[in-house]
User: Fold this.
Amino acid sequence: MVKNIPIRITILFLLSFFSTFTYSQAKATQFANGADIGWLSEMESKGYVFYNDSGIQKDCMEILKEKGINSLRFRVWVNPANKWCGKKDVATMAHRADSMGFRILIDFHYSDWWADPGKQTKPADWKNLDIVGLDSAIYSHTYEILDTLKSIGVKPTWVQVGNETNNGMIWPDGEASSSMKNFASMVTSGYNAVKAIDSSILVIVHLAEGNKNSLYRWIFDGLKSNSAKWDVIGMSVYPYWAELDWATDDAQTLSNMKDVISRYGKKVMVVEAGYLYNEAADANHFLLDLIEKTKSIGGLGVFYWEPECYNWQSYKLGAWNPITKKPTSALDAFLGHKDTNSTTIEQKSNQSK
Assistant:
């Protein structure tokens, strides 16, 4: 009997190892039901509270998990004027999310504040750098943030190098319409930093206007011809900003997805999506359709942008009811549930008076 003990221990160890490995693999390939909650820590500091469908006050992340969310996205600014979305804030939130079992997407803006199609402002500390210096700064900043996360046991599943880079990033040096070569070099610098931390992390290049195929062809043809490196094509999908009905926006986005997958041989992911908070049923239908379409072409996931917002900085595309402080039915789409009620939040409020 004594002789068999090591064998039994070995067998138990192997069973445990393969079980853990199989779970980790399944988690890594699971479709990302995602939410960007970059505002959450600041909202909590201002006293915002959150209730689940049963009216129980809970941690917002716990409520998101109840809604089927399995992945969270956090933005990083280089040197923000306040502490929000800086290195310490992002590390704290990413660690908190990771400890709750969420996969993490880190979104580098390479700016001291918002970077989007209308502005890609060079960080103040980088203002005198040329392209060589900027490439180095991008690498160092990216590596530093991810190394900080690594030191506290957090490994992102995905990392974005740039945010909504419709015309490149870090203007004017990385403006794609002026120098696609510079933009490609910046993307590759970010990519190399990510892979130096962990080669399994997937690197995303993210554009807005997921319905505009000509935009995606222009940027990704340019990146490819300039030998840029990336793993995933990220998209924003907002019918509100596109000024389209959601069905048309989703259909055009699907067509674009199919084209870029075929053209570049890369996976796609919707890293931002949103709809008017007070049209919850339509938001729910929009998301159900977008998720279905994204899954149909092997897409990696869909992230809702700042669903937790209610009465916050006048943002209208959240998915939280400002009256009840509960999530709207928009988020039920991540559970596969369809909302059959067409009444808006304002109509419900008026009916209850």
